[in-house]
């Protein structure tokens, strides 16, 4: 009788032990599945974040606006550079490109700056013969014309150095970047000197602001803003390149994705539920031991 009871208890103990092992294995499998699903979701989100570099998703217009916004340029920055992109793109190809690079944006900023300076130089040719101002003012206008012409030459030299459709590798050429900075800086200084002279002449006028002086001052102001925009793009080239080609701090992008409307709803359901299930499984696992 005792032998039968002992055998029965041994069988029951063995059966319980077998069920316990089976249950533990099931817990481990379930635990592995949950962990795998969480890792898979995080990898998907990471891939989405990495694909959200500016170059991968943005249209040329969006990329140009992002660059102009980064350097705090006026609205004319994006509209003028986009115009330059469209004019070159459609003139050189029947199937226009949908991509634009930082170096191309910089080259386009030089192009629109050159066109603006060329128009300003042409205006000086028209205005000087018509300007009914003192000989002193005529001298200032002619000096401004010479300064504008020199700025035009320097920007043209910069365009030749960069090319129409450059590669981003130009930013790694320290000698070329140094030359570009010097040329653009000198072009800006020329226009600043011109502005100072025109402002001084306006203050000397007895009968208010002369129309021609005011007109040329506005033109120089606009042209100088274009030059400053090109200068700022060159100065911020590293930040712009990072914005285009790097996923901009993956953890930040992941966080932004999870806070988006669809991402937040999914995260609110998925991650807490997985966490609770894992917690429950761990409690069961430790209780069995």
Description:
By secondary structure, the chain is mainly α. It has 2 domains: 14-52 and 251-288; 72-91 and 98-245, Up-down Bundle (Butyryl-CoA Dehydrogenase, subunit A, domain 3). It is built from 11 helices and no strands. The protein has helices at residues 2-51, 54-57, 60-70, 75-92, 102-130, 135-162, 174-204, 211-235, 237-245, 250-259, 261-288. Helix 1 crosses helix 10, helix 4 (75-92) crosses helix 5 (102-130) and helix 6 (135-162) runs parallel beside helix 8. It is rod-shaped. Residues 92-96 and 249-268 have low confidence and may be disordered. Residues 63-199 form the Pectinesterase inhibitor domain.
Layout of strands and helices, then pairs:
Elements: H1 2-51, H2 54-57, H3 60-70, H4 75-92, H5 102-130, H6 135-162, H7 174-204, H8 211-235, H9 237-245, H10 250-259, H11 261-288
Summarize the structure.
This protein is an all-alpha fold. The protein has helices spanning 2-51, 54-57, 60-70, 75-92, 102-130, 135-162, 174-204, 211-235, 237-245, 250-259, 261-288.
Notable characteristics:
single chain; about 290 residues; mainly alpha; Butyryl-CoA Dehydrogenase, subunit A, domain 3; 2 domains; 11 helices; rod-shaped
Structural class comes to mainly alpha
Helix content: over 70%
| Architecture per CATH nomenclature, i.e. the level-2 architecture of the largest domain | Up-down Bundle
Most strands sheet: none
CATH-defined superfamily of the largest domain: Invertase/pectin methylesterase inhibitor family protein
> What low-confidence regions span 5 or more consecutive residues with pLDDT below 50?
92-96, 249-268
The shape is rod-shaped
**Beta-strand percent range:** under 5%
Number of strands: 0
CATH class of the largest domain: Mainly Alpha
Q: How widely separated are the two ends?
A: 32 Å
Mean pLDDT: 76
Tally of individual domains = 2
| Succession of helices and strands | HHHHHHHHHHH
Reported by name, the CATH topology of the largest domain is Butyryl-CoA Dehydrogenase, subunit A, domain 3
The rounded Rg comes to: 34 Å
DSSP helical segment count:
11
């Amino acid at each position: 009788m005792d032998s039968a009871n002992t055998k029965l208890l041994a069988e029951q103990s063995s059966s319980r032990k077998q069920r316990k092992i089976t249950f533990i294995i099931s817990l481990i499998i379930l635990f592995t599945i949950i962990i795998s699903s969480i890792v898979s979701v995080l990898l998907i989100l990471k891939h989405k974040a990495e694909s959200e570099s500016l170059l991968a998703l943005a249209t040329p217009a969006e990329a140009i606006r992002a660059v102009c916004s980064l350097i705090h340029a006026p609205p004319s920055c994006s509209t003028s550079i986009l115009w330059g992109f469209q004019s070159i793109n459609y003139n050189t190809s029947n199937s226009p490109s949908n991509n634009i690079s930082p170096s191309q944006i910089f080259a386009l900023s030089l192009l629109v700056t050159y066109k603006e300076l060329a128009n300003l130089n042409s205006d000086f040719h028209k205005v000087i013969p018509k300007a009914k101002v003192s000989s002193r003012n005529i001298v200032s206008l002619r000096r401004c014309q010479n300064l504008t012409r020199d700025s035009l030459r320097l920007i043209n030299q910069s365009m030749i150095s960069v090319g129409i459709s450059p590669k981003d590798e130009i930013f790694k050429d320290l000698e070329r970047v140094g030359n570009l900075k010097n040329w653009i800086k000198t072009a800006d200084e020329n226009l600043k000197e011109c502005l100072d002279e025109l402002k001084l002449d306006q203050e000397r006028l007895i009968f208010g602001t002369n129309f021609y002086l005011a007109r040329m001052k506005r033109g120089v102001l606009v042209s100088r803003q274009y030059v400053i925009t090109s200068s700022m793009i060159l100065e911020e080239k590293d930040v712009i390149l990072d914005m285009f080609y790097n996923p901009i701090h993956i953890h930040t992008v992941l966080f932004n994705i999870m806070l988006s409307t669809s991402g937040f709803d999914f995260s609110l359901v998925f991650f807490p539920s997985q966490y609770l299930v894992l917690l429950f499984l761990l409690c069961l696992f430790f209780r069995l031991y």
